[in-house]
Write a structure and sequence with these properties.
It holds the Pfam family ABC_tran. InterPro entries: AAA+_ATPase (IPR003593), ABC_transporter-like_ATP-bd (IPR003439), ABC_transporter-like_CS (IPR017871), MacB-like_ATP-bd (IPR017911), P-loop_NTPase (IPR027417). With 229 residues, the protein is of the alpha/beta class. The chain has helices spanning 44-51, 74-84, 100-105, 120-130, 146-158, 176-191, 203-206; strands at 2-12, 17-28, 33-37, 59-64, 67-68, 85-89, 164-168, 195-199, 211-216, 219-225. The two termini are 14 Å apart. The protein has a 6-stranded mixed sheet with strand order 6-7-8-3-9-10, sandwiched between helices. A 4-stranded antiparallel sheet has the order 2-1-4-5, with helices on one face. A hairpin with a 4-residue loop joins strand 1 (2-12) and strand 2.
Length: 229
């Protein structure tokens, strides 16, 4: 599903060069739930951005669903992101001036139409029902708790039925009880067929996934199977 081959990522300015990732070789199979851990600044977010096609490597190849995307243009990358990848962010990235329902509908604005013939609004409602927020559709983000905001973010990520979900610290801003609830939703989505990659600082959350990859100073220093897919 996701393959990274000989990945190196270098950030350059006029006066400094920073090696963010080096010699990354990683293959994630369909329906796998993989967690990524490591200290701050080790390259976790950079790796997530490469998987999500938000950035391209300085060297090496990224494959998504068997497609080598390294030479794709911006338009092709945007289309592939919209069709195959859902993003969940630690800070939610909701638009405060839009209702919960409108926030969830946003990814569908860039699609021509749903194969089932359902409207964007119906699909957004279904996504919110899946995360238990059907009674909050008309609310605005500033009227929600942190856990509810994260549920909205998950609904927005899954509304287009992506094959891949990338979650960057999805429980990082939540208390343990709410974090466990969010993790349960992710586990259910994975059980239903989604491939999930999650960045986390929480060892207890990582242990609930299939596989744990550890990074340090831009390199992979561990790759452990925790559960079979």
């Amino acid at each position: 599903m996701i393959t990274l081959k000989n990945i190196e990522k270098v950030y350059r300015t006029s006066s400094i060069e920073t090696l963010a990732l080096t010699n990354i070789n990683l293959s994630i199979q369909a329906r796998e739930f993989l967690s990524i851990m490591g200290p701050s600044g080790c390259g976790k977010s950079t790796l997530m951005n490469l998987m999500g096609l938000l950035d391209l490597p300085s060297q090496g190849n990224v494959e998504i669903g068997g497609q080598v995307v390294t030479q794709y243009g911006d338009k092709e990358l945007a289309q592939l992101r919209n069709q195959k990848i859902g993003f969940i962010f630690q800070s939610f990235h909701l638009i405060n001036d839009l209702s919960v329902l409108d926030n969830v509908e946003i990814p569908l604005l860039y699609r021509k139409g749903d194969p089932t013939g359902k409207s964007r609004r119906d699909l957004a409602k279904e996504a919110l029902e899946r995360v238990g927020l059907s009674n909050r559709m008309k609310h605005f983000p500033n009227q929600l708790s942190g856990g509810q905001k994260q549920r909205v973010a998950i609904a927005r990520a899954i509304v287009g039925r992506p094959e891949i979900i990338l979650a960057d610290e999805p429980t990082g801003n939540l208390d343990s009880a709410m974090g466990n609830e969010i993790m349960a939703i992710l586990q259910q989505l994975n059980a239903e067929g989604s491939t999930i990659v999650m960045v986390t600082h929480d060892e207890s959350m990582a242990k609930k996934t299939h596989r744990l990859v550890r990074l340090f100073d831009g390199s992979m220093v561990g790759d452990s199977t925790l559960q079979t897919v």
